[in-house]
Specification:
single chain; two-stranded parallel ribbon; 2 strands; globular
Length: 110
């Protein structure tokens, strides 16, 4: 998703919150398919960290060929290769989201 697209997404979410008179308690931006060897990926990560730190997950899902391999046989990466880097990243992301109390997520937005 481009930064322009992300900005539009947040504007849409804000409008929905206003229209429905409801505040979303948790919004998470996940950096995925990340390859730190490319300059554009590092620049994108830096930009997300500076513009959306309150929404950015701590866990980064790195680029990994195991995702494509698992997808080609129609199974989740955790079933295809549970010890792979991709599976470990996904597990860490799930743990982060499950173990972050809603109150802490709300504080980050305030």
């Amino acid at each position: 998703l481009s930064f322009h697209g992300l900005k539009l997404l947040f504007e849409t979410l804000g409008q929905l919150e206003d229209d429905l008179d409801h505040t979303l308690r948790r919004i998470v931006v996940i950096l995925n398919h990340y390859n730190p060897t490319t300059r554009i990926a590092r620049q994108a990560k830096d930009a997300l960290e500076s513009h959306y730190p309150e929404f950015l997950s701590r866990t980064v899902v790195r680029q990994c060929t195991t995702f494509a391999q698992a997808s080609s046989v129609g199974v989740p990466v955790n079933a295809y290769a549970p010890k792979s880097r991709g599976a470990k990243d996904v597990d860490a992301l799930v743990d982060e989201i499950i173990n972050t109390p809603l109150e802490q997520a709300e504080e980050k937005r305030a």
